[in-house]
Amino acid sequence: MKHVMVVPGGAADHAVGALYGKTPLQAAHLPTLDALARDGLVGSAHLLPEEVAVAPEAAALALLGYDPARCYPGPGPLDAAGREVPLERGDVAFRVDLVSADGETVTDPAAGGIAGEDAEALFQAAAGALRALNLRFYRGRRRRHVLVWSGGAADIHCIPPALAAGKPLLETMPRGDGESVLRTLMWDSLDILDGHAINERRRDEGKAPANLLWPWGPGRAPSLPRFATRHGIGGAVLSPAAYWRGAARLAGLAAPELPGATGRIETDYAGKVRETIALLRERDFVLLHLGGPGSASARGDAEMKVDALERMDERLLAPLLKGVRALDEYRLMVVPDVVFPVEERAPTREPVPFVVATSRGIARPARAAFDESAVDESPLVYEDGYRLIELLISG
């Protein structure tokens, strides 16, 4: 039996005015998903407990079968594991984003979408100048990197840069034990990067500078029970996101990086299908995460989100289902990680819909549509969302 979980990140949504009161899932043409819903079971799952931050990273652990209330460490340690950054006892890992600031506020938490050689050069310039005995920087991708603070305070309060946008820096910088270390690092990074030649060029081109390092998401490395021990099968996770690869590695799952996997709507769908099928020839479980729908929500673009969902259905789900059918008996589940309203541009704690179908068929399907209405209309509800994976693996 092969078990496949497809996670369209941020696919669930609210009704959107620009879509005539429909959600993107309802507005999109999704024949493959519709067929899965007709032949399978549709329900809903609460992936984010009240005591856990509203974060796709916490939902990722839940989808792998781990209770976020007990083991979610914050995004920093998951990113570190995903980038194979070693963490010793007493180390605290942070995400570090390149953001735009004017000296008083964060003006663009995405730093104008900086990527490529410019992002790498700016990060290296700051990391090289700010090197200290107990602070270690590790290069990531685009604007997102990792900082490890040996002997640091894991409970220091740091907010995501998106929540700091437009607010005074002094009110949004880290607070708590050790705040002076991080605040000094941030102010020093502004001094180093603001006048950098790359940022001067970006300003001349009408682009936002990437002139401030923003550390957030601190935590220590968690210890997760092995996925194979809990579920009796091995597997792999395919995702462009470091935190997904980190969660996989901490759980003892393979986490190969796939060239062409961008986390955006323009990604190598065919390559993801090929790699998933190749992994399933050797393993019994593969989780495939797509970032396109969530990227569209972060940009507030409803039409782009509909496009992302339709591309997923046509270019990924349809050929994936064909390939899985040729391998063996299977169970296939599609489930978003979070509700990510395109109009609010921030994820919520609401339950997400899911659909599961099998090669053997399901005699009494719960309903005939897969969208947000399943939360109210389907009787199949997982209050402890981290147990949803049992439906996929055990049936």
Description:
- The chain folds into 2 domains: 2-72 and 223-393, Alkaline Phosphatase, subunit A; 91-219, no CATH class.
- It contains 17 helices and 12 strands.
- The chain has helices at residues 24-27, 31-39, 56-63, 68-71, 75-82, 116-129, 161-164, 169-172, 179-193, 197-204, 227-231, 242-250, 269-280, 292-299, 302-325, 374-377, 388-393, and strands at 2-8, 41-45, 91-101, 106-108, 135-141, 144-150, 212-219, 235-238, 285-290, 330-334, 352-358, 381-382.
- The protein starts with a strand and ends with a helix.
- The model has no long low-confidence stretch (mean pLDDT 92).
Gist?
By secondary structure, the protein is an alpha/beta fold.
CATH topology of the largest domain: Alkaline Phosphatase, subunit A
Question: How many domains make up the coordinates?
Answer: 2
The CATH architecture category of the largest domain equals: 3-Layer(aba) Sandwich
- CATH class of the largest domain equals Alpha Beta
Spatially, the strands of the biggest sheet line up as 8-9-1-10-11-2-12
- Distance from first to last alpha carbon: 11 Å
Label this structure with key terms.
395 residues, 2 domains, 17 helices, alpha/beta, 5-stranded antiparallel beta sheet, globular, Alkaline Phosphatase, subunit A, 37% helix
